[in-house]
């Protein structure tokens, strides 16, 4: 089944942060309500129009627990006809876009609200050791593997061993992303950054330095998808879902089939085939950047460059403002924000770029955007391709 142009994103919303924290001490439910209200207002709709709700949350998140869509729906006063709490980590929201589009296409709902919120920095609750226990953790945790940095560091080491990739090339990604953040007044980190700064920042897990790692912040975001018929009456021009794919290959890093290839090989292929576009037709790219190595592996796996060529591909600030491959244009998880699961913010930025609402960081003549989410320890991926008329 294809969901190409079965649904459109007509509203997006998020909340402002101060030094990585939500303002006024709002709770996780409050910031999700704020983001939802803004997204619905952006679309020219109200909560009474929503009949499908899609929510994922961090494990044991204060105020949410294990039933995020139920708890959030109750708080918002929404009784949906369709609900989805698919949780595959940071790529969950790209998966939600596909699920929502399929539900809309099937007539199961007409107005879908995708939501995420986290107050992990304010709550000081970022304890990944609290992830649900799984049997395969016995092969990692007792031996001191830091989670998740250790897993990503293993992938980085393997790529360096196999292809000769250098730490300086990973640092190129962090520096380019910071340059985008400097154009975004809402980004958490906007100070000048150099490759040397990245390489001399504290080592977190060899070969990944502190500035190779994403931020730890609060944050909330919301997206509204509607049917093609309903899109005609919305406030903003529609951004169409052209293609979507999802997959996962493992949970524990020791079970990853190839440390240099993610499941985007499956999800990306599906999204490109459904959208009917080529790599050269993508104008702006948003890729999950939990770590710099995440970006490098995803670019290769999606086919933007050949295996082992990712380091050269991102060199010379190719992905920075003014480069010919605009990437993570709001500053990404490395410099904008990273509230535990970042995937929804990739989508929000893609929509703003396609609607030409990105201000100083606007990429001119953007008509098609690729969004690639990653979850777990390079475990899950979901790829969405969006386009405007």
UniProtKB/TrEMBL annotation:
InterPro entries: Thiolase, Thiolase-like, Thiolase_C_2, Thiolase_N. GO terms for molecular function: acyltransferase activity, transferring groups other than amino-acyl groups. Residues 20-228 form the Thiolase N-terminal domain. Residues 245-388 form the Thiolase C-terminal domain. This is Acetyl-CoA acetyltransferase. It comes from Neobacillus citreus.
């Amino acid at each position: 089944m294809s969901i190409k142009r079965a649904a459109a994103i007509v509203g997006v919303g998020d909340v402002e942060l101060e030094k990585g924290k939500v303002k006024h001490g709002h709770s996780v439910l409050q910031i999700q309500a704020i983001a939802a209200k803004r997204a619905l207002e952006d679309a020219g709709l109200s909560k009474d129009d929503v009949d499908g709700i899609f929510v994922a949350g961090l494990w044991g998140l204060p105020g949410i627990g294990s039933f995020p869509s139920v708890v959030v729906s109750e708080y918002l006063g929404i009784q949906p006809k369709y609900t989805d709490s698919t949780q595959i980590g940071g790529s969950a929201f790209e998966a939600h876009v596909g699920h929502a589009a399929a539900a809309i296409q099937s007539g199961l709902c007409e107005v879908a609200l995708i939501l995420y919120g986290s107050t992990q920095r304010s709550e000081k609750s970022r304890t990944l050791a609290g992830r649900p226990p799984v049997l395969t953790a016995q092969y990692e945790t007792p031996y001191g593997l830091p989670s998740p940095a250790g897993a990503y560091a293993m992938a980085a080491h393997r790529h360096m061993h196999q292809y000769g990739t250098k730490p300086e090339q990973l640092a190129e990604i962090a520096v380019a992303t910071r340059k985008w953040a400097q154009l975004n007044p809402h980004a958490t980190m906007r100070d000048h950054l150099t490759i040397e700064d990245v390489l001399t920042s504290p080592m977190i897990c060899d070969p990944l330095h502190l500035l190779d790692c994403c931020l730890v912040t609060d944050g909330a975001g919301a997206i509204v998808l509607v049917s093609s018929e309903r899109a005609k009456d919305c406030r903003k021009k529609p951004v169409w879902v052209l293609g979507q794919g999802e997959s996962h290959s493992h949970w524990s890093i020791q079970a990853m089939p190839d440390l240099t290839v993610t499941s985007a090989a499956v999800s990306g292929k599906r999204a490109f085939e459904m959208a009917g576009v080529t790599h050269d037709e993508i104008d702006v790219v948003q890729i999950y950047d939990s770590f710099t190595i995440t970006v490098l592996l995803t670019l290769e796996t999606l086919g933007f460059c050949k295996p082992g060529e990712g380091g050269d591909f991102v060199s010379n600030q190719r992905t920075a403002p003014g480069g010919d491959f605009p990437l993570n244009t709001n500053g990404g998880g490395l410099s904008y924000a990273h509230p535990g699961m970042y995937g929804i913010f990739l989508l929000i930025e893609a929509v703003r770029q396609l609607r030409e609402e990105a201000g100083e960081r606007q990429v001119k003549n953007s008509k098609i955007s690729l969004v690639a989410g990653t979850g777990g320890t390079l475990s899950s991926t979901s790829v969405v391709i969006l386009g405007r008329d």
